[in-house]
Amino acid sequence: MSSSLLKAVEHAGKYFNCWKYEMSGYLNGRGLPVDYLFYNALESSDQVFAQIIQLKKNRWVYETACLRDEAQLHLIGVSLVRKRFETFDQLAALVPEVTDQSSSILLLMDSFYVPHSEHYQTAHHPHSYVITSYQSDELLKETIYNLVDIVIDDYKDFPYAASDLKLMYESSLPTHRAIAYFDIKSDSRLQKERILDGYHRHLRQYSDNYVLHDQVIAGIDSFDGFTDQQERLYHLEMAYTFMAGSRYMYARFLKIMGFQAASESYYEAGEQAESLSNMYRRYGLIGEVDSEELVEECKRMKEMEQEALYAVRQQAMVSG
Fold first, then answer.
1. Fewer CB atoms < 10 Å away: N or C end of the chain?
2. What CATH number labels 12-32+78-184?
3. In which domain of life is the source organism classified (predicted)?
């Protein structure tokens, strides 16, 4: 199986961490209806404010419920099988068993030991990869494994000899190691009623007071707890990038359910959040903030959020 069968879900890199990004890309590449699993991708801007601004979390460690419970995969007929191996030889024995069945292996390792990684020999950082295939190299007299990684919101192949992959895997601490693969049943069915129930459940408990937007509108200097303007802009950029990804993923779910008007509203909200994220990045580069422009665009964002939530609640009344 080649990495061409991993098809990135558009905008998913703005929302998911590497594990979920690769998981969704694999399912999407296999032609499975992964968009149904985004029924709870709508994140409250209040929580985004709490985690990314107040707690200063990076967006890839945001505690989102979407795809948190891997049992959710059963809703589209997929299981995720996890394994714990101490040695690379145990992993190597699993590779033919899984890849020969047209599946792939999700592999978490410490990128400090992965030569193509930006963190190679500079920082210990758990990161997930995908083993999609293997082949014998007669010249090297070794097995070559195809490792797939994220490169600018897409996937790229990185072939590694068994001896190299063994070093990467066994050097990684147990806390920075994980193995999983997919089991896709041929007789599985889409559990649309359970998905709809999950969607309604999430929407009933969802609330948003738009604290993040209101704080920006009150003035960017009102964000305290940061060492300087650059750090403040960096976290605001992350917050709105994450918001954009959340809205884009939620719009995909609404669209596949046939909720067209609500889907369009959230897609437009995603575009506005992305525009604001780009604005923060631009301010950081030029070292100057256009307060009037920022307040105007953030007011627009808040209005779009309110209109989109109204549209989705109206649609839920019809579908419920």
1. C
2. 2.30.30
3. Bacteria
